[in-house]
Design goal:
28% strand; alpha+beta; 793 residues; 19 helices; six-stranded antiparallel sheet
Length: 793
């Protein structure tokens, strides 16, 4: 289908051309002696009707005026033209342009009359005026190339005409703009190929963008919108290619500036990292605005501290250059007071400076290097300086480009300041979190321990993971791991409060389910009290796992508040996810917490972890648990090596959550280190308990403790027999200290009180407190246990 359906109707022949106009011949007396077919088509009269008749009859005028008008036009020595009203055969009149040309033939006078519709003639004249306007006054450049793609003609608006088109006539199209290039897509990149395509196919190519330097203006780079059409004469023979071009430099650069600002809004400041923000500014501005971008910042800003106050920073700056953080390099730089950089910082305004000693250009000659210095301003503070440098483009930075550079610098300054503030807060939160986490786990005999804590990627922020190991009475140990929802200082502070609370409740010798129940109530109270202040979000949805391991029995009891269950690798090498009845996260309430009990053999490895170890943006939690379980199949390896293997197995890339891993290898206290003695509720059994204690200490080589231990055992057994209704059990454990435990079926605990001078009792617990390092009471399902620890010399 023809893309231009009206093109075939365009005819630039004059309506008065003899090949088209109505023609007639008049004799010397004004009669019609010749009448052509074109005259019949115009007026409708046949030759038989007009031949030999006075031509005045065809004029639409008063009879007296017809002859006078006709005689005036026929007499003369040259052509005469006028506008007449002619009578058509159908009775209508036709306003026509008429030309009278007197002739002399063999002495007989005659006149050739040529007529055309006046409206058609005016349209033809308008077309000629349009063509003349395009050739002389239009801003559209018009150039004609022959079939060999050589210049034939160009109008006055072409850059060739401005440079003197005569010297370009006959030269190939490739010689006109030797350093230019097409920047449009989806078309051949070479002008010869474009014109060859138009000549071959006849399909016009329109809207091509061409960038280069015009011969008349070799300094400034221009952009043209070019279209190409095939030229064919009236006989259908190929003449060449017609090019029309329009200089759209200003519009193109405005669109580039707009797209640059849109891209800057999406890119600059999205990383919350000072170096990345500087790299984003360089990546956005190069090469559209500059060939290179340098960012100079004080070390304090890079480190997340406040920028220097007082005068604008001109000394002790660090220069960052590169388009990616990996390519970025830093080097110290300072500005003399008279330098344009110092002037820009002092005035807080952009400064353009041209360095004549620039880098060599394509020809090997030294080219001037233009620099634009823009201060990085935010909140009325000067953060640093951005330098936009041009070397390959000799154009100076114009007002629009300076405005664009200032806009980009403002965006970069806001991003750098936000990154600086975030770096400061992130560092404070990290210090706070690490200060709240245990630096060294206490020594004990129940388990071997290794742990790892990895904070999330710096763009996410510090989270609220925690872990702890708490020595309990009876050589037991409490193990806990938890996770606070959210990131930042509030999450770290919430984590610190919860870890301290768990440690306090654990020292009360509560079982795991009871501890989580009390902790849930405390978290719910904190959420209610902090709701008005906006600090309650971190205390909602907190997960926690608490476990107690007894090395004497090998019994491990744990309970979960919405936390993933531990993974257990027993001494035989089998690995399984522990059975667990998880309760709701802390602070939600509504459901009870349940204990799960498991017997662990000596040498078993138990992995306590947060979801950051097993979950990431690319894999689900089940895949992560399988990955960690596979690592634990190497459970005979040292625990430190297992920790490294587990964290190395995570997918690479930025992590969105903290990762906390606590690995424990269980131990068992052998029978040779534990002695049990069951005593009936008879006061006479106190002496038996004392004698049995002295004998056991002698077997362990701890005779020097016999007096103190016998006194402590006597007081504890006496209290148990006095208040209990059933048998009393004495247990001695040789660990890092000597543990003395007396268990009975009573639920009332003894209280330390100050005995008066005349009281007969009430001094036993004073003696126990003086003789032991620690003492206390813990409750069991069948009663209570009073215990005391004595230091081994």
């Amino acid at each position: 289908m023809d893309r231009f359906p009206h093109a075939a109707n365009v005819d630039f022949h004059s309506p008065l051309d003899l090949s088209k106009a109505a023609a007639a011949v008049l004799d010397a007396e004004g009669r019609v002696s010749g009448w052509g077919s074109s005259a019949q088509r115009l007026l409708g009269h046949s030759p038989e009707e007009v031949l030999g008749q006075p031509a005045a009859r065809l004029l639409a005028a008063a009879p007296g005026q017809r002859l006078a008008t006709l005689c005036k036009l026929c007499k003369g020595h040259g052509p005469r033209g006028t506008v007449l009203e002619l009578c058509r055969r159908d009775g209508r009149t036709l306003r026509a342009a008429v030309t009278f040309s007197p002739l002399a033939h063999q002495g007989a006078a005659a006149t050739v009359v040529v007529a055309a519709d006046l409206g058609t003639l005016r349209g033809w004249e308008a077309q000629l005026a349009m063509l003349q306007g395009l050739a002389t006054e239009s801003a559209v450049g018009l150039t004609i190339f022959d079939t060999d793609m050589r210049v034939v003609w160009g109008n006055v608006s072409t850059d060739l005409e401005l440079a003197g088109i005569a010297q370009y006539i006959g030269r190939p199209a490739a010689d006109l703009f030797p350093e230019g290039e097409f920047i449009s897509r989806h078309h051949p990149p070479d002008e010869d190929q474009i014109m060859e395509h138009v000549l071959t196919t006849g399909e016009p190519i329109m809207g091509m963008h061409y960038r280069g330097r015009a011969p008349a203006d070799p300094v400034r780079e221009h952009v043209w919108s070019c279209s190409y059409h095939r030229l064919v004469d009236a006989r259908g023979e190929l003449l060449g290619v017609f090019e029309e071009s329009l200089d759209i430099t200003d519009r193109y650069r405005a669109q580039e500036r707009l797209s640059l600002l849109v891209r800057a809004g999406k890119r600059i400041g999205a990383s919350l990292d000072v170096r990345r923000t500087a790299a984003e500014l360089a990546d956005v501005a190069v090469p559209q605005l500059a060939d290179e971008v340098l960012v100079d910042l004080p070390p304090a800003v890079i480190e997340g501290r406040q920028p220097p106050t007082g005068s604008a920073p001109g000394h002790s700056l660090l220069r960052m250059h590169g388009r990616t953080p990996e390519e970025f390099r830093t080097s110290p730089v300072s500005y003399p007071p008279s330098s344009p950089q110092a002037q820009s910082l002092a005035t807080s305004r952009p400064v353009v400076h041209t360095d004549p000693a620039g880098t060599p250009d394509r020809t090997g000659q030294g080219a001037s290097r233009c620099c634009l210095f823009v201060p990085l301003l935010t909140r009325n503070a000067v953060l640093g300086l951005a330098t936009f440098r041009r070397s390959s483009n000799p154009d100076r930075f114009g007002p629009e480009e300076q405005t664009l550079a200032v806009e980009l610098a403002e965006r970069a300054a806001v991003g750098i300041d936000n990154a600086r503030r975030y770096t400061s807060q992130h560092a404070a939160a990290l210090v706070l979190q690490r200060s709240l986490l245990p630096r060294h786990l206490p020594e004990q005999s129940a388990v071997d321990v290794a742990y790892r804590y990895l904070p999330a990627d710096s763009r996410v922020g510090v989270g609220g993971d925690w872990f702890d190991l708490i020595p309990l009475s009876g050589a037991r140990v409490g193990l806990t791991v938890g996770d606070v929802v959210g990131h930042g200082v509030h999450a770290a502070a919430t984590m610190g409060r919860l870890r301290a609370t768990v440690r306090t409740l654990a020292l009360l010798d509560l079982d795991p389910a009871e501890l989580l129940t009390r902790l849930d109530g405390l978290v719910a109270q904190d959420s209610d009290s902090d709701a008005d202040g906006g600090l309650g979000d971190e205390t909602l949805g907190v997960t926690c796992l608490y476990a107690i391991y007894d090395p004497v029995s090998g019994r491990c009891v744990w309970a979960s508040a919405g936390h993933p269950p531990p993974i257990v690798a027993d001494a035989s090498g089998s690995v399984a996810l522990s059975a667990l009845a998880p309760g709701p996260p802390l602070g939600l309430g509504g459901l009870p917490y349940e204990n799960v009990e498991l017997s662990l053999s000596s040498g078993s490895v138990v992995a306590f972890f947060t979801d950051g170890v097993v979950e990431d943006r690319h894999t689900d939690i089940d895949t992560g648990i399988d990955r960690l379980a596979h690592v634990l199949t190497w459970q005979r390896c040292p625990l430190e090596e297992l920790c490294d293997r587990a964290l190395t197995a995570r997918p690479p890339g930025p992590q969105t959550d903290d990762a906390t891993l606590l690995l424990v290898r269980t131990r068992r206290l052998g029978d040779d280190r534990v002695a049990d003695l069951e005593l009936p509720p008879d006061p006479a059994m106190v002496a038996r308990a004392r004698t049995g204690t002295e004998r056991q200490l002698a077997d362990w080589g701890l005779s020097e403790l016999s007096f103190s231990a016998a006194l402590v055992v006597s007081e504890l057994v006496t209290n148990g027999i006095r208040y209990a209704t059933g048998p009393v059990t004495l247990r001695l454990i040789r660990d890092r200290c000597l543990l003395c435990e007396v268990s009975d079926n009573a639920h009332t605990a003894p209280h330390l009180r100050r005995a008066r001078r005349d009281d007969e009792g009430g001094r036993g617990l004073f003696l126990v407190a003086q003789m032991s390092q620690r003492w206390g009471t813990r409750y069991t399902a069948s009663g209570k246990t009073i215990w005391a620890e004595l230091a081994i010399p």
